[in-house]
Amino acid sequence: DIQMTQSPSSLSASVGDRVTITCRASQSLSGYLNWYQQKAGTAPKLLIYAASTLESGVPSRFSGGGSGTSYTLTVNGLQPDDFATYFCQQSYITPSTFGQGTRVEI
Amino acid sequence: EGQLVEAGGGLVKPGGSLKLSCAASEFSFTKFTVNWVRQAPGKGLEWVASISASGNYMFYAESVKGRFTISRDNAENSVYLHMSSLRVEDSGVYFCARDHDHAYLTFDLWGQGTLVTVSS
Hints:
The complex is a heterodimer.
Chain A: E1 4-7, E2 10-12, E3 18-25, E4 33-38, E5 45-49, E6 53-54, E7 62-67, E8 70-76, E9 85-90, E10 97-98, E11 102-105
Chain B: E1 3-7, E2 10-12, E3 18-25, E4 34-39, E5 45-51, E6 58-60, E7 68-73, E8 78-83, E9 92-100, E10 103-110, E11 114-118
Parallel strand pairs in B: 2-11
Antiparallel strand pairs in B: 1-3, 3-8, 4-5, 4-9, 5-6, 7-8, 9-10, 9-11
């Protein structure tokens, strides 16, 4: 199975900050990398797919990048609604696997 | 947009069985692959199983292979997960999730989840 490692596991930030989360895979994903946001007690929400494609309805302050084995999620101008846990996920091959999550808190 | 609603979770003893359901509405259900993804309490996400739009192809995580069976009824717009030989480590919230129509194994619509607790 492909192992996904996110860093950091948690971070503290303020409203208006630029935040970057990194996800590394144990093998190349050829861009098949997705990002989700999850708030406590709710289902995950798809933010970005195929490494850099913004899902419909997701604010443009979210962006994704990277290639091969290394990918990033960036939030430009953190908003109060963005305090949540973020997961990366590889959709390159079955079984699909997720990173362990990054908690973004104040 | 669409909606998915899970049901069937509950408390079951180790070794027991449980059948989860996922009812879809407000989208063309028969065109989409559907998945089950679970989350142990306070933990990360684990993909469990997927079933193709036709129902002809099913895939499973190694951790559940031989114990869980995914199925669907396109006439009823529903997907099911039959779980047997349950273990304590199978406990968690089970979500059904739809594949994105432009990206395989990319989950653009999720249900609210149903809680499964395996305990003696």
